[in-house]
Amino acid sequence: MKSSRSTEVASAEEQIYDRISELKAFDETKAGVKGLVDAGITKVPRIFFSPVDGFDKVSDPEKVEFCIPVIDLDGVEKDPVSRKNVKNKVRDASETWGFFQVINHGIPDSVLEEMLDGVRRFYELDTEVKKEWYTRDGSKTVVYNSNFDLYSAASANWRDTTYCNMAPNPPSSENLPKACRDILIEYSRQVRNLGLILFELLSEALNLNPNHLYDMDCAEGLAILYHYYPACPEPELTLGASKHADYDFLTVLLQDHIGGLQVLYQNQWVDIPPVPGALVVNIGDLLQLISNDKFKSSQHRVLANKAGPRVSVASFFTTGLVPLSKIYGPIKELLSEDNPPKYKETTVRDYSLHYNAKGIGGASALLDFRL
């Protein structure tokens, strides 16, 4: 006769086994979350159930202190007075929020709209066509799947993602999905130009030479991640993206009109509302590391919703899994007797591998690199 303890263990093992089986069954369809919705699902499968994160309080959007900064970049390259004002706003936002939005950033609205349309075209392809790109091999140029951390995260997220490495080794156009190939190349070119401006401003905000972060190769790599969040029948049970910080130096996000992105600020979830023509910018873990905590890589999440599909495009400035030998640690010019280094040195690849293995939804991967 089994003891109650052994019965509990068996029950727990059975639940774990069931979860792994369900994860594999979902993964093997190669159809992602969109495939579930296309099949007419009316209940959210339990692999997507999100645990409570302890920060369920949502801020009052009417309070100005809970409004994410919107920074106007108009004149920043020509007018020294404008540039100084913008630099100060970038510094304040990077130190407190880790997030801000930019307008008059130089990328035409037509390019932004076509990029979002290209994402929709890709995900609305027939499943059999999209399967060509479905993989869990992170070293490939194009990686389409649902949940990069499907087998390690506490819960699956209600989204599908495609990851394209656009720099430092740009792919040939025939190696990109035809549905969004041309706009992916054009958008990448334009977002890289914006990234150079942002890294100059961030360098100046750290009281460094404008080219400092660029000369450190922070802008050498660019990965474009385009996400598709299908309409969810029970959005209260899951998340579009669990709480996480980004592993890169800097992220530039293009989001559509639906909303759902939130940043954790003063232990409250604050909405980052879509602003027509704006781009969301956030500090990544590696920039927090090299700035020695001067800049903040903030936790953020995306809510699931019934209004979908929501689409977004995240541009990650990082060399990711490219095997480069450059070592990153706290910038020497920022250190002093009163401000010693707070982080171990690492390569971008090693940090990326650690982050990917850890998955999202838990504690920040950056904590594991603190001295």
From TrEMBL:
Q: Which GO terms describe its molecular function?
A: 2-oxoglutarate-dependent dioxygenase activity; L-ascorbic acid binding; metal ion binding
- Superkingdom assignment: Eukaryota
| Cleaved signal peptide residues | none
Q: Which residues form the Fe2OG dioxygenase domain?
A: 220-320
Q: Which GO terms describe its biological process?
A: coumarin biosynthetic process; response to molecule of fungal origin
Which is an annotated Pfam family here?
2OG-FeII_Oxy
Give the record's keywords alphabetically: Iron, Metal-binding, Oxidoreductase, Vitamin C
| Stated family | Belongs to the iron/ascorbate-dependent oxidoreductase family.
Indicate what this protein is called per its UniProt record: 1-aminocyclopropane-1-carboxylate oxidase homolog 1-like
Which species is listed as the source?
Olea europaea subsp. europaea
